[in-house]
Amino acid sequence: MDILAIVLQSILALAFLMAGIGKTTGSQMHVEGFKRWRLPQWFRVVTGFVELIVAAALIIGFWEPSWTAAGALLLGVTAIGGIITHLRIKDSFKQTFPILVFGILTFILFFIQMSDLADFPGFK
Q1: Structural domain boundaries of the chain?
Q2: Which contiguous run of DSSP H or E holds residue 114?
């Protein structure tokens, strides 16, 4: 496995493990964020579970690279949704920047591991 992929995979897994835990447990920061974005709180919990699933897939991906590709793809779609949410309410660039960076890192990881996606369970 490429060193860049391992570094990106580690950063993203840790970041979204923490974000998913924060969203599902109802940390004040995430609750206020979803209020500001005018999104229902149940969607915060769903988003948190998606982030936890992605983090788990990225962790499994250390042993089975196809999981990294699948997790990165799901995370990339989630990041696009986050970027659209920030743009929809006209958040500042400073507020949009973190999800934009995570989205770019996610797609870099996906393109590194893309060839492994064909080996994902159920795709064979």
Answers
A1: 3-115
A2: none
